[in-house]
Amino acid sequence: MKNFLKSFFDIKFWKFILVGVLNTIVGTGLQFVFYNLTFLKDFSETGVLIASSVSYILASVMSYFLNKYFTFKNNEKGIKPIIRFALNIAVCYAIAYGLAVPLTNYICKANEISMFNMTVESFAANLSMVVGSCLFVACNYIGQRFFAFKER
Questions:
Q1: What is the C-alpha separation between 74 and 146, in angstroms, rounded?
Q2: Are the C-beta atoms of 149 and 74 separated by less than 8 Å?
Q3: Which residues of 33-50 are buried (b: 16+ CB within 10 A; e: fewer)?
Q4: In angstroms, rounded to a whole number, what is the distance separating the alpha carbons of residues 141 and 152?
Q5: Alpha-carbon distance 134 to 147, whole Å?
Q6: Sign of the torsion angle spanned by Cα atoms 16, 86, 50, 107
Q7: What is the pTM of this model?
Q8: Across the chain, what does the average pLDDT equal?
Q9: What is the largest CA-CA distance in the chain?
């Protein structure tokens, strides 16, 4: 078990974290801008999904290149690594937001939880983006390391 943990949390993990911090700043920033400063705010849960998916697509392009060449030093050519990466992103996104949006909305609305002078619906939508982002990061690291950019 100790060897597994040591190999799992190696230099690739820390590079992934560094790229992830940059990617999170860009992606989450875009997500909150798209949701809060556009018409998407009028559509609550659907607006969250649209804002988060657009920002994830844009941030994923940046993430692909940084993780392929910097984190995992993957030299594989062709379309296969792109397809694996895109599939990983799609699956991780579906899992993360498929869980985060309904659960966060249910918990906040059932308990009337809100902060920062937001309505319960607006707070739940913003919180679901944070929860979804956290779930996505965990799922994404495993998927990129062991599927998208797996050492062959």
A1: 12
A2: yes
A3: ebbeeeebbeebeebbbb
A4: 17
A5: 20
A6: negative
A7: 0.76
A8: 88
A9: 51
